[in-house]
UniProtKB/TrEMBL annotation:
Molecular function (Gene Ontology), one example: photoreceptor activity
Annotated protein name in UniProt: histidine kinase
Species per Swiss-Prot/TrEMBL record: Caballeronia mineralivorans PML1(12)
Matches recorded under CDD domains: PAS
Enzyme nomenclature, EC number: 2.7.13.3
PROSITE patterns xrefs: PAC
């Protein structure tokens, strides 16, 4: 587009001076492509002096990288007589450039012929920079998410997938440029839908949730995931979106299986060893039917039962309830009729403590069946356990108390069973064992600092 001198123009198409009072940069261009008028803001921006503005081709002021695109748009618009808009950078007299939005509109006469073009440049520099910065931050955030090996998803409160990082797209076989918007749960295998719906409901109510998941891709084995859902709330406390971080725990799962196999093998070999020991005892002693052989068999079985529980608990501990129940099972029907168990069913003992207490429980039960509260139909054994808060710390307390049985007296003979009941392997930790033959029945109490006997899991929970 070229400048046409004032003498070449016919009568004015517009009261051009009025355009000088508008903040936008405005140019009037004739149908032949020559400009009729640049308003004062345009002249001021291009030359620094509105009265000295000279331009033979205004497109030369367009930033070079944008120039070809603008010229193409202008040519297409001229040929089709249609409006267009485009973002461009316009240089100024100082060599700098700013972003503008160019809007071009043709004015037609009654015959549909172009009378003139009106070009309007609106300064969008700050807005453009803000968008660039926002896009850059968004790219950085996206890159950070894509670096993560975890599958990270943003989900609406009603379960629609808003965004997912690269790892998530690969795991769920979703195109990164899909736009998302689909139901998240429908991307997961059907067998985890119920747990997923429950977790989604909890998160929608503002509560963190967690559930195990799986994924299957063609040509690959099953992968296992730990899905953690965190609700993201707005200023009103309502859940806007839900952040779901899914961590691949396939390796941990496989390791867990190997550990379970090893523990089962260990259990099997240990039982075989105990069986061999029992057989050796029977073949070694003169009378394999002697009472002490039977007692030894029962003690070996007691050790085996404790070991079974440890295997089931993967050697991280045994609940007190499971331990005392298994070790008093020798009471048969009397266990339910004449024994009371009071205490936290989830409190867990360390493996070493479980073996010691297990043997003591076995010996106490054996004696109660032979001589104490379980030797008649009137007696009762009450076993209680608890964690006590005291001025000198927190203590685990276990109490075996018999009542209603025959009168018991202290025996002069101290056999293995008595030694097991009275021994205190935790004395160095401040533990106390009290074994008393009271008129009401046998009483056995064991107390020890919590840190010495309870599983680490229970110590953390406390």
């Amino acid at each position: 587009m070229h400048h046409r001198g004032a003498g070449n123009s016919s009568q004015p198409l517009l009261p051009y001076e009025a355009l000088d009072y508008l903040p936008d940069l405005i140019c009037v261009i004739g149908p032949d492509g020559f400009y009729e008028y640049f308003n004062k803001p345009w002249r001021q921006y291009a030359s620094g002096n509105a009265d000295q503005f000279v331009s033979t081709n205004w497109t030369e002021c367009i930033y070079e990288a944008d120039r070809c695109d603008v010229r193409r748009e202008v040519a297409d618009a001229m040929a089709s007589a249609t409006s267009f808009s485009i973002d461009l950078r316009l240089t100024n007299i100082e060599g700098g450039e700013r972003w503008f939005l160019l809007r071009a509109h043709p004015q037609l006469d009654e015959r549909g012929q172009i009378r003139f073009w009106l070009y309007i440049l609106t300064d969008i520099h700050e807005r453009k920079l803000y968008k660039f910065n926002l896009a850059q931050k968004s790219k950085i955030q996206t890159d950070m998410l894509n670096v993560s090996l975890d599958c990270i998803k943003v989900i609406t409160a009603d379960g629609k997938l808003q965004h997912m990082n690269k790892a998530g797209c690969i795991a769920l076989n979703v195109q990164e440029n899909s736009g998302f918007g689909m139901d998240w749960l429908n991307l997961l295998p059907e067998e985890v839908h119920e747990d997923g719906r429950k977790a989604l409901r909890y998160a929608g109510e503002g509560r963190p949730a967690r559930f195990p998941g799986i994924s299957r891709l063609s040509g690959e084995g099953v992968r296992y995931w730990d899905n953690m859902l965190t609700p993201l709330k707005n200023g009103s406390g309502e859940v806007d979106t839900i952040l779901c971080v899914s961590r691949d725990v396939t390796t941990q799962k496989e390791n867990q299986r190997r550990i379970e196999l090893l523990l089962r093998e260990l259990d099997h070999r240990s039982k075989n060893m105990l069986t061999v020991v029992q057989a050796l005892i029977r073949r070694t002693v003169p009378d394999p039917r002697a009472d002490f052989v039977k007692a030894l068999d029962q003690r070996l079985c007691s050790i085996s039962r404790s070991q079974d529980l440890l295997i089931e608990g993967q050697w991280v501990g045994i609940t007190v309830r499971d331990l005392v129940w298994s070790q008093t099972a020798i009471a048969g029907g009397a266990q339910e009729k004449h024994m009371l168990f009071n205490g936290d069913p989830n409190l867990r003992l360390r493996p070493g403590a479980a073996e010691m207490i297990g043997l003591a429980m076995h010996e106490l039960a054996t004696n109660a069946i032979k001589y104490g509260a379980l030797s008649n139909d009137c007696g009762t054994v009450t076993i209680t356990w608890e964690v006590e808060e005291r001025s000198d710390g927190r203590f685990f307390h276990l109490h075996w108390k018999e009542s209603g049985g025959p009168e018991v007296t202290t025996t002069q003979r101290r056999g293995f069973g008595t030694a097991v009941i009275g021994r205190n392997p935790f004395a160095r930790h401040g533990a106390k064992v009290t074994h008393a033959f009271k008129a009401s029945g046998v009483s056995w109490e064991f107390e020890v600092p919590v840190a010495a006997i309870l599983s680490d899991i229970d110590i953390e929970l406390e």
